[in-house]
Amino acid sequence: MSLRIERVSAGPATTIRLIGRIRAEHLDELKAQIKDTEARIALDLEEVSLVDVDAVGFLGTCQAQGISLVHCSPYISDWITKERGRDK
User: Which phi and psi (to 5°) does residue 39 adopt?
Assistant: First the structure.
């Protein structure tokens, strides 16, 4: 299964819904989707089934830049926290 990206805009906010597996090869497209959005952004990870280490780093960077991660599974959230600790 690959990654499907859906955008939902509501006023001053945009939610980018991610469905499937997030891998390094998808990050350029995700970065472009975020860059093209001037509104406040949230990434909805409810239907993300798997991520790789590059995706975890990307998601951690997104959080650091103020992008909300909603419906993030505990294993992804914990992994982001662990990777952030290693970067210090």
Answer: -80, 170
Domain count, the chain: 1
| Tokens, residue 35 | 């860059």
The pTM of the full predicted model, rounded to 2 decimals, is: 0.90
> What are 32-79's pLDDT values in tens digits?
999 988 889 999 999 999 999 999 999 999 999 999 999 999 999 999
Distance CA 43, CA 30 (A): 10
Q: Which domain holds residue 29?
A: 3-86
**CATH number of the domain encompassing residue 15:** 3.30.750.24
Q: Supply 58's token pair.
A: 């990307």
CA distance 87 to 66: 18
What secondary structure letter does DSSP report for 81? Answer: H
Type of residue found at 78: D
The rounded distance, in Å, linking the Cα atoms of 85 and 88 is 6
